[in-house]
C-alpha cells in the first residue's frame, strides 16, 4: 500500500485539476452545441426545405479574374484517421479548437497568418490542446504550424499548395475592416478586406489541385454579414463576394448559446445551404445561459429592455438577466471606445465605488465559447488579447456548423446505403454523433 501522505497528495492534485477544469468554463449549465446541432438536423430533415438558388453575379472590376468556387457538397470529414487542417487568415486558431473539441483527430494543422501576436497565441493554444487531448491531437500536429506556407497569403503560390499535398478541411475568414460598422465602409476597396481576391485565388487553386489528385476537401469561409449594412457600397461588394462563394448561412452566435452577439455569414461545401438554413430555423437558444455567468466578481451587465433588434437574434426577455452582450469590438475608433458613457459593464469594487468598463479578455473568451485563458500566451498583453478576440470567429458557431454538417453527412451516407438495399424515405436507425437515433432518410440535391 502507498504511504498515507502519497494518497492524500494524489487526492489533492486530482481536486486541484478538477477545480481548474471547472474554472476554465462559464458558470451555469454546460453548453453542448454539438448535441443541439444534432437535434436540430433531425428536426430539419422532416421539414419541407426550399431549394436555394445560386446568388446573382455582381460585376466589380476589383474581382476581375476571380473564378467562383465549386460549392458542390463533398463527403463528410473522415473520422477513421487524423485530419489535415489548413487555416487561412488563421488568427488565434478557432478552427483548430473547433475540430479538436468536436472529437476529430488532428494529424496536422497548417496556418497562414501575418500578425505575429496571433501566431504566438495560436501556437500556445495548439500546445494546450495537445495536453488536453493527447489521444486526439498528435504531439507533432502543430510542429510546422506557421512554416508550411508563407505567412502572407499574397505570397502563397501554386507550388506551395502542390507541395502541401491533399488536405481535409480549409477554414478561412477574410478581414472585415472594409465592411464593419466601425471600419472604413470601403468594402473590398479597403486593402485588408480586398485580400478576398487572394483567398479566392488560393481556394480555387486548391480545388483544381485536389481534382487532379482525385480528392476533395471541405471548406468553411466566414465574414461579416454585410448584406444588412446601410451603406450601398458595402452591400454591393458583399453581393459580389456572394456571387463567387455561393449561398450563405447567416448566423448570430447568440442564437446558439454564446453570451455575445456576432452576426456572421458562413459558406461551406460540407452540407447544402437548404438543410443548414432549415436546421438553423429549428435551433433555439439553450435555456439558462446568461452574461453574468462569464463575468468576474462585482461586474454586471445592464438588464435588457427589449427582446432585441433584427437581424440579430432576439434572445432577451425584459425582466430577466441579460443573455448576450453586444458584438465585441477590438480597436479605438469603434463604438465601444467613443461612447461618452463609458463601458457596457457596471463594475463595483471592494470599497463600493462604481465605474463602467468593457469585458476583459477572459470574459470575452468565455462569452465566445473558448476556455478561459486559452490566449494567455507569454508576452501577450490584455489589450492585444482583446483585439485578437474581436477579430476571431465565434467558437460556438463554428462548432455548431461543423457538427450540423457532420450529422447531415451521416444521414446522406445512410440514405445512399438505403438506396442500394432499402427504401428511400423509410425511417432508418442512424448512428450520428455517438448516439443511435431514428431519422427520416432523405436525399440532398447537388448543391442544395
From TrEMBL:
One of its GO terms (biological process) is methylation. The keyword Methyltransferase applies. It holds the Pfam family DNA_methylase. It comes from the Eukaryota. Keywords: Methyltransferase, Transferase. Signal peptide: none annotated. Gene3D superfamilies: Vaccinia Virus protein VP39. Coiled coil: none annotated. GO terms for molecular function: methyltransferase activity. This is DNA (cytosine-5-)-methyltransferase. It comes from Klebsormidium nitens.
Amino acid at each position: 500500500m502507498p504511504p498515507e501522505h502519497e494518497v492524500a497528495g494524489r487526492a489533492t492534485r486530482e481536486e486541484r485539476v478538477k477545480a481548474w477544469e471547472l474554472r476554465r468554463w462559464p458558470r451555469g449549465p454546460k453548453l453542448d452545441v454539438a448535441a443541439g446541432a444534432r437535434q436540430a438536423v433531425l428536426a430539419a430533415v422532416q421539414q419541407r426545405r426550399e431549394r436555394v438558388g445560386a446568388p446573382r453575379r455582381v460585376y466589380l472590376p476589383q474581382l476581375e479574374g476571380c473564378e467562383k468556387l465549386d460549392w458542390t457538397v463533398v463527403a463528410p470529414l473522415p473520422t477513421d484517421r487524423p485530419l489535415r487542417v489548413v487555416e487561412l487568415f488563421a488568427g488565434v486558431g478557432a478552427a483548430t479548437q473547433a475540430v479538436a473539441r468536436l472529437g476529430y483527430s488532428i494529424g496536422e494543422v497548417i496556418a497562414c497568418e501575418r500578425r505575429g501576436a496571433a501566431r504566438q497565441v495560436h501556437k500556445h493554444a495548439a500546445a494546450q490542446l495537445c495536453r488536453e487531448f493527447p489521444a486526439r491531437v498528435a504531439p507533432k500536429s502543430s510542429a510546422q504550424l506557421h512554416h508550411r506556407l508563407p505567412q502572407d497569403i499574397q505570397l502563397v503560390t501554386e507550388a506551395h499548395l502542390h507541395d502541401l499535398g491533399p488536405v481535409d478541411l480549409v477554414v478561412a475568414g477574410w478581414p472585415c475592416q472594409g465592411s464593419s460598422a466601425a471600419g472604413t465602409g470601403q468594402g473590398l476597396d479597403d486593402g485588408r478586406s480586398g485580400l478576398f481576391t487572394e483567398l479566392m485565388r488560393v481556394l480555387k487553386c486548391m480545388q483544381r489541385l485536389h481534382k487532379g489528385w482525385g480528392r476533395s476537401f471541405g471548406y468553411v469561409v466566414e465574414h461579416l454579414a454585410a448584406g444588412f449594412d446601410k451603406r450601398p457600397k458595402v452591400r454591393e461588394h458583399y453581393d459580389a463576394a456572394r456571387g463567387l462563394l455561393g449561398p450563405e448561412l447567416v448566423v448570430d452566435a447568440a442564437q446558439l448559446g454564446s453570451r455575445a452577439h456576432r452576426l456572421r455569414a458562413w459558406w461551406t461545401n460540407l452540407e447544402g445551404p437548404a438543410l443548414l438554413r432549415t436546421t438553423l430555423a429549428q435551433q433555439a437558444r439553450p435555456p439558462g445561459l446568461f452574461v453574468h455567468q462569464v463575468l468576474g466578481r462585482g461586474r454586471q451587465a445592464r438588464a435588457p429592455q427589449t427582446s432585441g433588434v433584427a437581424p440579430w437574434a432576439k434572445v432577451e426577455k425584459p425582466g430577466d438577466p441579460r443573455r448576450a452582450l453586444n458584438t465585441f469590438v477590438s480597436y479605438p475608433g469603434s463604438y465601444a471606445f467613443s461612447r461618452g458613457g463609458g463601458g457596457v459593464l457596471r463594475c463595483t469594487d471592494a470599497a463600493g465605488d462604481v465605474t463602467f468598463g468593457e469585458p476583459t479578455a477572459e470574459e470575452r473568451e468565455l462569452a465566445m465559447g473558448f476556455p478561459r485563458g486559452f490566449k494567455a500566451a507569454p508576452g501577450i498583453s490584455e489589450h492585444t488579447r482583446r483585439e485578437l478576440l474581436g477579430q476571431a470567429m465565434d467558437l460556438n458557431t463554428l462548432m455548431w456548423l461543423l457538427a450540423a454538417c457532420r450529422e447531415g453527412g451521416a444521414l446522406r451516407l445512410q440514405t445512399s446505403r438505403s438506396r442500394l438495399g432499402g427504401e428511400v424515405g423509410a425511417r432508418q436507425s442512424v448512428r450520428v454523433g455517438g448516439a443511435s437515433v431514428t431519422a427520416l432518410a432523405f436525399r440532398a440535391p447537388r448543391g442544395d
